[in-house]
Specification:
single chain; mainly alpha; about 0% strand; elongated
Length: about 60
């Protein structure tokens, strides 16, 4: 999903919604809807693996 929204779909959109084979990607209507939503919230979300925040144990009362 992350690869599609962050890499493939923007390229397809720039190329008139055609993939490298010159054909429309599968599930194009779904991809367009998801990309539209992602573009609205991408500054607020992280896709893909991320490091969990480790609490500073010096502040822990036990």
């Amino acid at each position: 999903m992350e690869r599609t929204l962050c890499h493939l779909a923007p390229n397809w959109k720039a190329n008139g919604w055609l993939n490298s084979a010159g054909k429309a990607p599968a599930n194009l209507d779904l991809i367009k809807s998801m990309l539209k939503l992602y573009e609205q919230i991408k500054d607020k979300v992280t896709l893909g693996p991320r490091q969990a925040e480790v609490p500073d144990t010096d502040d822990v009362p036990f």
